[in-house]
Amino acid sequence: MRGCVRDGERKQKCLKPDDEERARATAYRLLAVRARSSSEMEDRLSRRGYGRQARNRVMRVLLELGHLDDEKFTRSWVRSRLEDHAPSGRLRIRAELRAKGIPDEMVEACITEAFRDVDEEMLARKLVRRRMRQMDGLDEPVRRRRLRQLLLRRGFSPDIAASVLEESF
User: Fold this and answer.
1) Predicted structure pTM score
2) What is the DSSP string of 78-128?
Protein backbone atom coordinates (compact mmCIF):
# COMPACT_ATOMS: atom_id res chain seq x y z
CA MET A 1 0.00 0.00 0.00
CA ARG A 2 1.41 3.30 -1.06
CA GLY A 3 1.84 5.93 1.69
CA CYS A 4 1.24 3.42 4.46
CA VAL A 5 3.66 2.54 7.24
CA ARG A 6 3.78 -0.03 9.98
CA ASP A 7 4.41 1.70 13.27
CA GLY A 8 5.79 -0.80 15.80
CA GLU A 9 3.06 -3.05 17.17
CA ARG A 10 0.27 -0.85 15.88
CA LYS A 11 -1.88 -1.72 12.91
CA GLN A 12 -0.83 -0.54 9.52
CA LYS A 13 -1.71 3.11 9.25
CA CYS A 14 -1.99 5.20 6.11
CA LEU A 15 -0.51 8.67 6.30
CA LYS A 16 -2.78 11.43 5.19
CA PRO A 17 -1.25 14.46 3.51
CA ASP A 18 -1.97 16.58 6.59
CA ASP A 19 -0.34 14.17 9.11
CA GLU A 20 2.95 16.01 8.90
CA GLU A 21 1.23 19.38 9.36
CA ARG A 22 -0.71 18.10 12.36
CA ALA A 23 2.46 16.61 13.85
CA ARG A 24 4.29 19.91 13.32
CA ALA A 25 1.44 21.83 14.98
CA THR A 26 1.50 19.42 17.92
CA ALA A 27 5.27 19.82 18.25
CA TYR A 28 4.99 23.61 18.32
CA ARG A 29 2.24 23.45 20.93
CA LEU A 30 4.45 21.22 23.09
CA LEU A 31 7.40 23.61 22.65
CA ALA A 32 5.19 26.57 23.61
CA VAL A 33 4.71 25.01 27.04
CA ARG A 34 8.41 24.35 27.67
CA ALA A 35 11.62 23.35 25.92
CA ARG A 36 11.95 19.65 25.19
CA SER A 37 14.76 17.24 24.41
CA SER A 38 14.82 15.52 21.02
CA SER A 39 14.01 12.20 22.65
CA GLU A 40 11.06 13.68 24.57
CA MET A 41 9.63 15.24 21.43
CA GLU A 42 10.01 12.03 19.43
CA ASP A 43 8.28 10.10 22.23
CA ARG A 44 5.42 12.59 22.56
CA LEU A 45 4.74 12.61 18.82
CA SER A 46 4.84 8.81 18.77
CA ARG A 47 2.39 8.55 21.68
CA ARG A 48 0.04 10.92 19.87
CA GLY A 49 -0.10 8.39 17.04
CA TYR A 50 1.88 10.12 14.33
CA GLY A 51 3.62 7.76 11.94
CA ARG A 52 7.38 7.38 11.72
CA GLN A 53 7.57 9.25 8.42
CA ALA A 54 5.71 12.32 9.72
CA ARG A 55 7.68 12.26 12.99
CA ASN A 56 11.02 12.05 11.18
CA ARG A 57 10.17 14.97 8.90
CA VAL A 58 8.98 17.13 11.79
CA MET A 59 12.00 16.25 13.92
CA ARG A 60 14.35 17.11 11.05
CA VAL A 61 12.68 20.53 10.59
CA LEU A 62 12.73 21.28 14.33
CA LEU A 63 16.42 20.39 14.55
CA GLU A 64 17.32 22.42 11.45
CA LEU A 65 15.48 25.48 12.78
CA GLY A 66 17.15 25.11 16.19
CA HIS A 67 13.90 24.53 18.05
CA LEU A 68 15.33 21.30 19.43
CA ASP A 69 18.83 21.56 20.86
CA ASP A 70 19.69 18.93 23.46
CA GLU A 71 22.77 20.76 24.76
CA LYS A 72 20.90 24.05 25.20
CA PHE A 73 17.99 22.17 26.79
CA THR A 74 20.33 20.37 29.20
CA ARG A 75 22.07 23.58 30.31
CA SER A 76 18.72 25.29 30.84
CA TRP A 77 17.32 22.32 32.80
CA VAL A 78 20.34 22.18 35.11
CA ARG A 79 20.26 25.94 35.69
CA SER A 80 16.54 25.87 36.51
CA ARG A 81 17.07 23.06 39.02
CA LEU A 82 19.78 25.04 40.80
CA GLU A 83 17.85 28.33 40.87
CA ASP A 84 14.55 26.68 41.77
CA HIS A 85 12.70 27.49 45.00
CA ALA A 86 13.53 23.96 46.18
CA PRO A 87 16.93 23.23 44.60
CA SER A 88 17.99 19.77 43.47
CA GLY A 89 21.26 17.92 43.91
CA ARG A 90 23.42 16.26 41.27
CA LEU A 91 21.81 12.85 41.61
CA ARG A 92 18.27 14.05 40.92
CA ILE A 93 19.30 16.31 38.04
CA ARG A 94 21.27 13.46 36.48
CA ALA A 95 18.28 11.09 36.78
CA GLU A 96 15.83 13.63 35.34
CA LEU A 97 18.02 14.32 32.31
CA ARG A 98 18.62 10.63 31.64
CA ALA A 99 14.85 10.07 31.77
CA LYS A 100 14.51 12.79 29.12
CA GLY A 101 16.83 10.87 26.81
CA ILE A 102 19.89 13.11 27.11
CA PRO A 103 23.16 11.23 26.42
CA ASP A 104 25.25 10.49 29.53
CA GLU A 105 28.30 12.40 28.26
CA MET A 106 26.25 15.57 27.77
CA VAL A 107 24.58 15.16 31.17
CA GLU A 108 27.91 14.77 32.95
CA ALA A 109 29.52 17.69 31.12
CA CYS A 110 26.66 20.07 31.91
CA ILE A 111 26.38 19.01 35.54
CA THR A 112 30.13 19.33 36.07
CA GLU A 113 30.11 22.78 34.49
CA ALA A 114 27.10 23.98 36.51
CA PHE A 115 28.35 22.68 39.85
CA ARG A 116 31.78 24.25 39.31
CA ASP A 117 30.28 27.55 40.50
CA VAL A 118 27.77 26.12 43.00
CA ASP A 119 28.31 24.71 46.47
CA GLU A 120 25.98 21.72 46.68
CA GLU A 121 26.15 21.69 50.49
CA MET A 122 25.06 25.34 50.55
CA LEU A 123 22.01 24.45 48.44
CA ALA A 124 21.16 21.62 50.85
CA ARG A 125 21.59 23.92 53.87
CA LYS A 126 19.26 26.49 52.33
CA LEU A 127 16.62 23.82 51.75
CA VAL A 128 16.97 22.45 55.30
CA ARG A 129 16.74 25.94 56.90
CA ARG A 130 13.56 26.72 55.01
CA ARG A 131 11.93 23.38 55.85
CA MET A 132 12.95 23.40 59.51
CA ARG A 133 10.72 26.42 60.08
CA GLN A 134 7.75 24.30 58.99
CA MET A 135 8.63 21.53 61.45
CA ASP A 136 8.71 23.50 64.70
CA GLY A 137 6.27 21.28 66.60
CA LEU A 138 8.00 17.98 65.79
CA ASP A 139 10.49 16.04 67.89
CA GLU A 140 14.14 16.21 66.83
CA PRO A 141 14.39 12.57 65.62
CA VAL A 142 11.29 13.04 63.46
CA ARG A 143 12.59 16.33 62.01
CA ARG A 144 16.00 14.80 61.35
CA ARG A 145 14.47 11.77 59.60
CA ARG A 146 12.13 13.86 57.46
CA LEU A 147 14.85 16.32 56.48
CA ARG A 148 17.20 13.49 55.54
CA GLN A 149 14.50 11.93 53.37
CA LEU A 150 13.83 15.30 51.77
CA LEU A 151 17.49 15.82 50.92
CA LEU A 152 17.80 12.35 49.44
CA ARG A 153 14.61 12.79 47.37
CA ARG A 154 15.91 16.11 46.08
CA GLY A 155 19.05 14.36 44.82
CA PHE A 156 21.66 15.25 47.42
CA SER A 157 24.15 12.52 48.26
CA PRO A 158 23.93 10.70 51.61
CA ASP A 159 27.25 12.30 52.62
CA ILE A 160 25.97 15.81 52.00
CA ALA A 161 22.71 15.02 53.80
CA ALA A 162 24.59 13.71 56.84
CA SER A 163 26.96 16.68 56.90
CA VAL A 164 24.21 19.28 56.61
CA LEU A 165 22.01 17.61 59.22
CA GLU A 166 24.94 17.25 61.63
CA GLU A 167 25.60 20.98 61.57
CA SER A 168 21.86 21.82 61.69
CA PHE A 169 21.15 19.90 64.92
Assistant:
1) 0.79
2) HHHHHHSSS---HHHHHHHHHHTT--HHHHHHHHHHHHTS--HHHHHHHHH
